[in-house]
Amino acid sequence: MVPKVRNRAQSRARKVFLTGALVLALMLGAVLVATKAFDTSLETSRFQLRSPKVSKPITFVVLADYHSCDYGEGQEELVDAVRAAHPDAVLMAGDMADDDLPSGNVLELFSTLGKEYPCYYVTGNHEWRRKDLPQLEKQFASRGITILAGDTVELTVNGQRFHYQDETTLFVSRGLSRESTIMPRFYNRPELAILTVEPE
Questions:
Q1: R_g over Cα of the chain
Q2: What span, in angstroms and rounded, lies between the C-alpha atoms of 191 and 188?
Q3: Are 143 and 110 in contact, with CB atoms under 8 Å apart?
Q4: pLDDT on residue 180
């Protein structure tokens, strides 16, 4: 009889241990998933195109959906990521400002980038919703940002000429917004997109 009691006690202890281990594993898994799911650290994605129209590589940084978010003092995290890409030009594909948040962060970002790179900006739907869009665009232009408004601009980059039109869509990026989204960015980290066009 004693061995059966011991076996039951051991069996019960084993079940308690396994249940506890399973609960702990599930809790740790949930923490890891939540940490990854709501990660707002900046991710860099690289895209490459080949074209017979270029004789040497051209690199663009494409910024979109920034929504006046905060990337540290002087927007240093984002500025450093742009500098690390060594772009020939910066293309700003709309929603750099937000219709609800103050414009201080985007003006700070544009002040730096407009001094260092040729920058081309198209208006997004969030800027269109603002009552102060004409004044905002003047502030952008005063920081060295070229505003495209239904225009086609001929650019010379690395000694090569090409046309950039504000209706042109190169590709889709997840964008740069962090805290301005109403819903959490579930598995959707902010993205800095780097596009390199190389000769065929």
A1: 25
A2: 9
A3: yes
A4: 46
User: How far is the C-alpha of 90 from the C-alpha of 151, rounded, in Å?
Assistant: 17
- Alpha carbon distances (Å) from 140 to 86, 172, 176: 22, 23, 18
**Structure token pair of residue 12:** 């019960």
Residue type for position 35: T
Residue 170: φ, ψ to 5°: -85, -45
pLDDT for 90-127, tens place per residue? 988 888 888 888 889 999 999 999 999 999 888 877 77
For the chain, the average pLDDT equals 80
Determine the angle formed by the axes of helices 133-142 and 104-116, rounding to 10 degrees.
30
DSSP code, position 117: S
Measured CA distances, 122 to 3, 55, 90, 97, 192 (Å): 80, 27, 12, 11, 17
Task: Summarize pLDDT for 145-183 with one digit per residue, the tens.
Answer: 998 877 677 877 778 887 776 555 445 555 666 554 444
